[in-house]
Amino acid sequence: MNKIVKDILEYIEDNLDEELSLDRIAGKLCYTKYHINRLFSQETGTSIYKYIQTRRLSEAARKLSETDMPIVDIAYEAHYGSQQAFTQAFGSVYMCSPMAYRKMHAGCAVQIIERFGRLERAGGSSGFTGCMRGGMAA
């Protein structure tokens, strides 16, 4: 994997809870936002924005299954402005609502981060299949 892309991934992982924009990432890595976005997309098959969104949703899914935090708090921690926006984004990836996901995975040792957390392969396929089919693809 390209060193710049590895640096981007490392920066995102280290700052996932912070405000992450292309400008900020590019500034920290001393490259233009156009350059890092192009390299990242070529290497991973997805945009930096989409990767950040997917990682934040995977963290939210982990919190839903491992904690009793209110969904609205998880939504705000995932950088969504409302629970409704979070529910819509979550549903587009996991094919169910956050509440349904929590009910299906409560008490389970879901290993989302280990399986899908870091996008370290070319192609960028997320592997998510939805709640009704077991939650994750192999």
TrEMBL record:
UniProt keyword list? DNA-binding, Transcription, Transcription regulation
Instruction: Give residue ranges for domain HTH araC/xylS-type.
Output: 6-104
* InterPro entries from the UniProt entry: Homeodomain-like_sf, HTH_AraC, MarA-like
Q: Which residues form the signal peptide?
A: none
Recall the GO molecular function terms of this protein's record: DNA-binding transcription factor activity; sequence-specific DNA binding
Q: What is this protein identified as?
A: AraC-like DNA-binding protein
Supply the source organism for this entry: Murimonas intestini
